Amino acid sequence: MNFLAHIYLSGDNYLIKIGNFMADGIRGKQFKNYPQEVQKGIVLHRAIDTFTDAHPVFRQSTKKLHSRYHHYAGVIVDVFYDHFLAKNWDNYSDENLADYVNDFYQSLSDNLPILSEKTVMMMPYMIDQNWLLSYQTIEGIDNILTQMDSRTKNQSKMRFASEELREFYTEFEEDFTAFFEELRAHAQQKLIEK
After folding, report:
1. Measured between alpha carbons, how far is 19 from 33 in angstroms, rounded to an integer?
2. pLDDT single digits (tens) 110-162
3. How far apart are CA 52 and CA 62, in angstroms?
4. Helical residues (DSSP H) of 55-168, grouped into ranges
5. Which one of 25, 136, 139, 157 counts the least CB within 10 Å of its CB?
6. E strand or H helix at 3, and its extent?
């Protein structure tokens, strides 16, 4: 799962959302340096990633990409799945996606002192280019994948992955829909346990 799904699966607590959002840049036990609710978000993020990576439906999606993108296939599917969450947002939330995204951006700004350095550096680009809302369109996904590819010095070839998104669009969407219901239940259970 990519940024939008991680934020969404965090429930209504903004500090849990922030922790879940910035967790990729926090290694090992460094998470203990953050406030309790942020720690919960980081731990939730790790649980979501573990569940996702092992899930047969997610693996089914990555198989469509593996021969061309190798170990980047999972990263690409994470982005594809965020596209389907954004595209079908009304099925998952009563709140308008643009309002939801803007509220999250505001929560980042309101909590700058507790954000990781990596998150603070990324925020201006994310907000200016409105990454979370851009997931709604294939063009937005194409831009995100191109930016990600440039960070690998174009070695990942992710910039071409929207070709497969278009080719297998219905299959990827069906995979996402089936998988996401199970992931939502898993994340809700993890939130209760924390």
Report:
1. 12
2. 999 999 999 999 999 999 999 999 999 999 999 999 999 998 898 899 999 99
3. 11
4. 56-69, 73-87, 97-110, 117-128, 131-134, 138-151, 162-167
5. 139
6. helix 3-8
Please give the C-alpha separations between residue 79 and each of 8, 38, 102, 131, 189, in angstroms, as whole numbers: 14, 23, 20, 11, 24
- The HSE-up count of residue 134 (CA atoms within 13 Å, CB side) is 18
Residue with tokens 């590819």: 149
Q: Identify whether the C-beta of residue 114 lies closer than 8 Å to the C-beta of residue 34.
A: yes
- What are φ and ψ of residue 13, in 5° steps? -85, 120
How far, in Å, CA of 57 to CA of 176, rounded? 8
Q: What share of the chain is helix, strand, coil (3-state, %, to 5)?
A: 80, 0, 20
pLDDT in tens, 7-37: 999 999 999 999 999 998 898 899 899 999 9
| Contacts (Cβ under 8 Å, ≥6 apart) of 151 | none
